[in-house]
Design brief:
mainly alpha, two-stranded antiparallel sheet
Length: 496
């Protein structure tokens, strides 16, 4: 947030600014109190039609994200995952039988339009006035360069032309595995997200869980929905959901960052894939319960220490956090009844056409912005890991640290503790052939517990308007890593 002009010039200016802040905060509190009074008054009863609207759309949204569907191989997915798998199967059939790679066509289309549109908007007099065009093509110099790099790398990979450190199996091919999955998932995710969030379920669960989530994790109760979205869906879904809620002033900057860096878990089905890759699938249940326990402990600890504790606790427009209706249950009302009133009020305000508009904006954010960034940064980061000794050098202290806790092969597997910042799947690959079962369990669990990885969640966080820099995001990653290693080591010792 920019400092008001003249703030440090005179005492009078300071007093005026402080007074303005007090007035703004008081106005926010009064607005929340008026909303509460309006919801409580007998003259304004909860209308059944809006309760049914809340229940109908919210149940559809929850079903899309949370309904477990057996896959036939002992695992399960959710309806969104099933839809993405169906589209993936369709793309694969078209590729195998008609020799047309729809993933490649889709990728080249979005990254090329993204890069060229941003170049034209930046370098010519053309100014995008339509809100959707402006959202798609306005970019600063850094992200403009990132879009161009992402587009160039995409063309190299698709046509298998370029240096090996860009198009190789461990760089370009690995990122394409991630990109292909995201391209199909986001087709359905972008339109399903507003169905889940815009019809009152966030307000209802916020009121229901605020008395637990707020004191334990310093977050509003609605954050439980973000956790569920990642647990049963994907970590990217949770970050995008939180990003959307932050931009709508439902979370402050600090709250949004805390959620994204503590609760954007890798989904349960993908955790099984990680366990299978690392060679620990036979211990999956105990391994996953250990991950959950450590993540809960980290969710209690890290929001209360630097750097998360010191982040701006203001909303995206700079306003201070006032009285939150869902956290302030009036006397005489139970949490479910208060949550129902808030949910019905939200459902009344939301029009079905708003869902289409919100979904289209998310399509733009994902395909015009996020996909090129994941592709560009992801390939370059993996190239540094696989084609240089940088990670081996900088991970030497981590080898010493792991050795303090008796982790076998500490020096050999130390790079796996840092490469997780780039991509969470690489650590599982690094320990897949290890002779040390304890080390496999610890490193593969650590990759999930770290949560922040640039190829997906990290880039989504940095590209958002959340108040966190690259340096502080890496600091959160390292703090989680340093705290988690002894906890996981102890846990593995107990469960084996």
């Amino acid at each position: 947030m920019s400092t008001p002009t003249g703030l440090d010039e005179t005492a009078d200016d300071v007093d005026e600014v402080v007074s303005q802040k007090d007035v703004a905060q008081e106005a926010a509190v009064q607005e929340a109190e008026l909303l509460a009074a309006e919801l409580l008054t007998a003259a304004n009863p909860v209308r059944a039609r809006y309760v049914w609207k809340f229940l109908g759309f919210s149940l559809v949204g929850l079903a899309l994200f949370l309904t477990p569907i057996p896959t036939g191989d002992g695992a399960f997915t959710i309806p969104l995952g099933w839809a993405a798998d169906w589209l993936t199967s369709l793309f694969r059939t078209v590729r195998d039988h008609h020799h047309v790679n729809l993933w490649h066509l889709m990728l080249l289309s979005v990254v090329t339009v993204s890069a060229l549109g941003a170049l034209v908007a930046k370098l010519t007099p053309w100014e995008p006035r339509n809100q959707y065009a402006a959202r798609a093509f306005r970019a600063g110099w850094f992200f403009l360069a990132t879009r161009v790099i992402g587009a160039v790398i995409a063309w190299m990979i698709v046509f298998d032309s370029g240096p090996q450190f860009i198009i190789g199996e461990t760089t370009g091919a690995e990122i394409m595995f991630v990109i292909n999955a995201l391209l199909t998932l986001f087709v359905f995710l972008a339109i399903a997200m507003p169905i889940l969030t815009d019809f009152g379920v966030m307000e209802f669960l916020g009121a229901l869980l605020s008395r637990v989530v707020r004191p334990v994790f310093t977050l509003p109760g609605r954050a439980a929905v973000d956790l569920a979205a990642s647990w049963f869906g994907s970590s990217v879904a949770s970050v995008l959901l939180t990003r959307n809620q932050h931009e709508r002033k439902h979370y402050t900057g600090r709250e949004a960052v805390v959620i994204c860096t503590n609760f954007a878990f890798v989904s349960l089905p993908f955790s099984l894939v990680v366990a299978q890759t690392a060679g620990v699938a036979s211990h999956f249940l105990r391994w996953y319960l250990l991950i959950c326990a450590v993540c809960v402990l980290l969710g209690v600890i890290t929001p209360r220490i630097w750097p998360l504790r010191g982040l701006s606790n203001r909303y995206i427009d700079g306003s201070e956090q006032g009285l939150i209706a869902e956290d302030s249950i009036p006397a005489g009302l139970s949490a479910p009844r208060w949550g129902l009133r808030l949910a019905a009020a939200r459902a009344e305000r939301t029009k079905v056409r708003d869902v289409a508009s919100s979904g289209f904006r998310m399509y733009i954010d994902i395909y015009m912005d996020l996909i090129p960034i994941i592709l560009g940064w992801g390939v370059l980061a993996l190239a540094v890991f696989h084609y240089t000794d940088v990670f081996q050098w900088i991970s030497t202290p981590m080898g010493w640290y792991m050795g303090l806790f008796g982790i076998e092969g500490a020096a050999t597997y130390a790079p796996a503790t840092l490469i997780g910042f780039v991509d969470m799947f690489v650590p599982a690959l690094l320990v897949s052939g290890s002779a040390y079962l304890n080390t496999q369990l610890i490193i593969s669990a650590l990759a999930i517990v770290q949560i922040i990885y640039l190829t997906e969640t990290g880039i989504s966080i940095l590209k958002s308007k959340m108040p966190i820099s690259f340096g502080k995001l890496f600091a959160v990653f390292m703090i989680r890593t340093l705290i988690a290693i002894p906890l996981l080591t102890l846990g593995v010792w107990l469960i084996l």
